[in-house]
Amino acid sequence: MKLIIGLGNPGKEYEKTRHNAGFMVLDVMVEKNDSAWKKDTAHKSMIAKLDLDDEKVLLAKPQTFMNLSGQAISLLKQYYKIDSQDILVVQDDLDLPAGTFAFNQSTSAAGHHGIESIQEHLGKIKISRLRIGVGKPRDKKLEARSLKLETKDWVLDKPKGEDAKLINQAIVDAADASLDWASFGLEQAMNKWNHRKKLEVRS
């Protein structure tokens, strides 16, 4: 079994925000594959299941809020006896431009609180990640403290205009990329998607 985790915050006020890009990717996967979400209180998640040929895939949206995501992931990993190499975490990423996404495998959280929580519960092990670019606030004149506050508002805001269009398309493509990861593994998914998305956004 493969486990794909989408990171985000539960609640209507957080729907469609940049920080919920991980949730949105999994929502597309569920819709495209005629699956459905169900509440799994014991594992602090909403879960859905997909069948890909001979591969079973468990999708999960932790309901613990972003900063405690590791609690849900640890519970799911233990209950379903899933190896770390069979886990994909889908997250938003400020360091990637809106409209891009990229697979990687790293022990660095890069300041992402959801990843920090996962590392707290699972350790700093290499887990496959799919980073959805949401860009950064564009005002470079702000002082460091102000920029930090603006960044928090940025990820909890809903993208608009061209940013919304780019991010929404990336989310749809990232859903297909996640299925490729489940079917063919990290290396093939990286070779197919990482370079391609960067070229499309530049063009």
Brief summary:
Helix content is 43%, strand content 22%. By secondary structure, the protein is of the alpha/beta class.
Question: What do these coordinates show?
Answer:
Helix 1 packs across helix 5 (161-184), helix 2 (69-80) packs across helix 3 (113-122) and helix 5 (161-184) runs antiparallel to helix 6 (186-202). The chain has helices spanning 21-32, 69-80, 113-122, 144-155, 161-184, 186-202; strands at residues 2-6, 38-40, 45-52, 55-62, 87-93, 101-106, 127-133. It has one domain (2-202): 3-Layer(aba) Sandwich (Rossmann fold). It has a seven-stranded mixed sheet, sandwiched between helices. It has six helices and seven strands, in the order βαβββαββαβααα.
Question: How are the SSEs ordered, and which strands pair?
Answer:
Elements: E1 2-6, H1 21-32, E2 38-40, E3 45-52, E4 55-62, H2 69-80, E5 87-93, E6 101-106, H3 113-122, E7 127-133, H4 144-155, H5 161-184, H6 186-202
Parallel strand pairs: 1-4, 1-5, 5-7
Antiparallel strand pairs: 2-3, 3-4, 6-7
Helix pairs in contact: 1-5, 2-3, 5-6
Descriptive labels:
203 residues, Rossmann fold, 22% strand
Name the helix and strand elements from N-terminus to C-terminus, one letter apiece. Answer: EHEEEHEEHEHHH
Q: Write down the CATH topology.
A: Rossmann fold
Anisotropy-based shape: globular
Secondary-structure class: alpha/beta
Unreliable runs: 141-146
| Strand order in the largest sheet | 2-3-4-1-5-7-6
What is the strand content?
15-25%
- Count of extended strands: 7
* Biggest beta sheet summary: 7 strands, mixed
Query: What's the architecture in CATH terms?
Result: 3-Layer(aba) Sandwich
